[in-house]
Specification:
This protein is of the alpha/beta class. Strands 1, 2, 8, 9, 10, 11, 17 and 18 form an eight-stranded mixed sheet that branches. An eight-stranded mixed sheet has the order 5-6-4-13-14-15-12-16, sandwiched between helices. α2 packs across α7. The radius of gyration is 22 Å and the shape is globular. The termini are far apart.
């Protein structure tokens, strides 16, 4: 029985593994630099963006010990208005970008103390946020529960619709000449200790001068990548709900609402089309993407404590997705120790927020060989043996 010989494609300057928003923005920006680019993904525009809420929350997502990441988050948030306008024009699509602001609220004394600490950290970090009384919070958002004890108003934290963002990036890539291979990457091709392309699931061989691994939580699973270069990325499960606000209930919420309820983070993100996104759980359960009754219950319970009227809304969708977590919760951007192989992964809970700065940084390094200053702290080489030892000693 004869076998069909593998198809060998013409070489590209850049081959991107993964067609989520990070892979797509990398491809689009690289193509704008004049590079020939191809993307490999069975469903370009899919992945974690189909589940994400799209909060652009550099300020309210601030965590202790993440000041270096904060600088990257702020740089990306600053670029978002121009980025969204450019992408909307390039794709002819509305991205659902809203400069609506965020309100983080406290429901009890412990939550209030936690928010006060966060406010102090924000101010120490030079960020703009305003402390409000519970009454002031309810004046801004009348649907909030009467028991709200106080909150932080952050007008600079915005939102975007990740599904629209992903769709627009697919269109922009196609219009920029990016070739989309709707197939799975089977193996990295390495010749003379250099990454030089991919073998696809159907046997097709793709050649490239540079390969970018941007496959989200699955970035560590590509065969052919040497063990010492595999990114230390793990899946972190998140369950998310979508409800619909009927016209008779509008306006329901005017901005994103966030809170910590009994130690669990919950948020409500209102879209202009009437959709209300409620999320998200954070579960270390490997590759499981099951929507569970417990997850749905906890999200609805916590959201109901924030906004009691939510139980009157139709529940239209339940989804679970996988965030790409890294050991320090920060992305891996740029060249690896294997020549020809670069990473753009590990964005964890900030993938949507970091889309503009990631695209710019990856296109710059692909075109010039050098990472821009803001991306240098996030080189994958920080997780080599010496880098890991340093991280462990500082932990």
């Amino acid at each position: 029985m004869s076998r069909t010989p593998p198809t060998v494609s013409s070489a590209s300057d850049v081959l991107v593994v993964g067609g989520g928003i990070i892979g797509l923005v990398t491809a689009w920006r690289a193509a704008q630099r004049g590079l020939s680019v191809a993307v490999v993904d069975p469903e370009p525009g899919g992945g974690a963006a189909q589940v994400a809420a799209g909060m652009l929350a550099a300020v309210t997502e601030l965590h202790y010990g993440e000041q270096t990441l904060l600088a990257l988050n702020l740089a990306s948030a600053h670029r978002y208005p121009d980025f969204a306008a450019e992408l909307a024009e390039a794709s002819g699509q509305d991205l659902g970008y809203r400069a609506c602001g965020t309100l983080a609220v406290a429901l009890d004394a412990d939550d209030r103390a936690h928010l006060r600490e966060l406010h102090a950290l924000q101010r120490k970090s030079g960020l703009e946020s305003e402390w409000l009384s519970g009454r002031d919070c309810r004046r801004l958002e009348p649907m909030l529960a009467p028991g709200v004890r106080g909150g932080l108003r952050v007008d600079g934290d915005h939102q975007i619709d990740p599904r629209r963002l992903a769709s627009a990036l697919v269109t922009a890539c196609e219009r920029a000449g990016v070739v989309l291979h709707r197939s799975s990457a089977e193996r990295l091709s390495v010749v003379r200790d250099r990454a030089c392309g991919l073998v696809l699931a159907d046997g097709t061989q793709l050649a490239a001068e540079q390969v970018v691994l941007a496959a989200g939580s699955r970035s560590g699973q590509l065969a052919g990548v040497p063990d010492e270069v595999l990114p230390p990325v793990r899946p972190v499960k998140g369950q998310v709900l979508r409800l619909t606000v009927p016209r008779r209930h509008a306006p329901f919420l005017s901005r994103t609402i966030r809170a910590v309820v009994r130690g669990s983070h919950v948020y409500l993100v209102p879209r202009t089309n009437g959709e209300l996104v409620v999320g998200a759980t954070s579960e270390e359960l490997g590759w499981d993407t099951t929507v569970t009754a417990g997850g749905v219950y906890e999200l609805l319970r916590d959201a109901h404590e924030l906004v009691p009227g939510i139980t009157e809304l139709p529940l239209t969708e339940t989804r679970a997705g996988l965030r790409p977590g890294s050991p320090d919760n920060a992305p891996l951007l740029g060249p690896t120790t294997l020549p020809g192989l670069l990473l753009a992964t590990g964005h964890y809970r900030n993938g949507v927020l970091l889309t503009p700065v990631t695209g710019d940084a990856m296109a710059h390094v692909l075109a010039t060989g050098e990472l821009p200053d803001e991306a240098r702290p996030f080189t994958p080489k920080r997780f080599c043996a010496a880098g890991l030892q340093s991280l462990e000693q500082s932990a």
